[in-house]
Write a structure and sequence with these properties.
This protein is mostly helical. It is built from 12 helices and 5 strands. α6 crosses α11, α9 runs antiparallel to α12 and α10 crosses α12.
Length: 333
């Protein structure tokens, strides 16, 4: 069993200061993705009036105000590392909170708050192990990862967390957590022995569930972009127009107009169709990224969207699509 070592605030800050801007952003996206996955699988708020709308992570929190990014704040004004967006099921009221104010502002039971905080602590320990490996001189196993890619080792496994984390960390040369490294090493060894793994029914269901989780998280990011646009005094009619343009952009040059509206629909599709729907959703996210990249209040959301695109090996184009130009013009009204 791996020995768990928790860094002190000073130790963590010292290592983070050694990282490049892109490495810090990649770690931030890893933290956000891991926390979102917990919310989706553990249903923390199911017994409350609140539903989880999304999460934003400040990659520069450890650097106080000594950075060029945007700081995050709780509705009470306190600066945050992790900002949770909650929406009331009964009133529609939206809150931006730190975990310590869930009970005070949203009357969420202390037991639920402790469960969420426990999850955050586990993720921080996981991240600390990556930082310790980096400090020890370890970097991303690029040769091994490229071998697996060249031999189609991730074929039918593109929706796995390992694949996305490898894509993300390979771009910035961050070491993998030991469990991820051992999983990648095992996959490489099987390929070297000429063994091709055939998916079982259980594995297919698991992959479909992972694709559905990715679709849901991307959908929440898009919801956050629309929330920021409404905060920018864009009318409901114009928001509807932007949403419609985003779907048209996502479906560009596709033979079908099939576009699912809920992540649960992903669970009923074949793997091929589920992957196509995830690709479409990523294009929709790309639409909002291109529209909002010059919006000051959307800086962190745009950076996180870019990290998602990297994790899924999806390019971020600079499109001349009419709907993007129209949405940008609405922002300048």
């Amino acid at each position: 069993m791996d020995k768990i070592i928790a860094l002190t605030h000073q130790q963590r800050t010292a290592i983070l200061r050694q990282l490049t801007v892109e490495q810090v952003k990649a770690l931030s996206e890893f933290t956000r993705y891991a926390m979102l996955s917990r919310f989706h699988t553990r249903h923390y708020l199911s017994q409350t009036d609140w539903e989880f709308q999304g999460m934003v992570v400040d990659p520069w929190y450890q650097r106080s105000h000594d950075h060029s990014g945007e700081n995050l704040y709780c509705d009470c004004g306190r600066r945050l590392k992790n900002q949770f967006i909650l929406r009331s099921r009964t009133t529609g009221r939206q809150l931006s909170l730190g975990i310590s104010h869930f009970q005070q502002h949203a009357s969420i039971p202390a037991k639920v708050t402790r469960e969420i905080q426990s999850g955050i602590n586990e993720i921080n320990l996981y991240m600390d192990s990556i930082l310790l490996a980096y400090r020890a001189g370890q970097r991303f196993p690029q040769t091994m990862f490229q071998f697996v890619l060249d031999h189609q080792g991730f074929k039918n496994h593109e929706g796995t967390v390992l694949y996305q984390r490898c894509n993300l960390f390979s771009q910035v040369d961050l070491p993998l957590h030991r469990r991820d490294y051992e999983e990648l090493k095992g996959l490489s060894a099987r390929l070297k022995n000429g063994r091709q793994h055939r998916l079982t029914k259980e594995e297919i269901n698991q992959l479909r569930a992972e694709l559905a989780t990715d679709w849901r998280q991307i959908d929440q990011q898009i919801t956050m972009f629309n929330y920021l646009l409404r905060q920018n005094t864009i009318s409901s009619q114009d928001i509807h127009r932007i949403k419609s343009n985003s779907v048209n952009y996502a479906l560009q040059r596709r033979k079908t107009r099939f576009f699912i509206q809920n992540y649960k629909q992903m669970l009923t599709l074949t793997l091929t169709k589920a992957r196509n729907q995830l690709t479409i959703k990523l294009r929709q996210l790309s639409f909002y990224l291109q529209v909002c990249q010059e919006l000051p209040t959307a800086k962190i959301q745009c950076e996180q969207a870019k990290q998602v695109m990297i994790a899924h090996k999806t390019p971020t184009p600079d499109s001349h699509f009419y709907g993007i130009k129209e949405a940008k013009s609405l922002l300048k009204k």
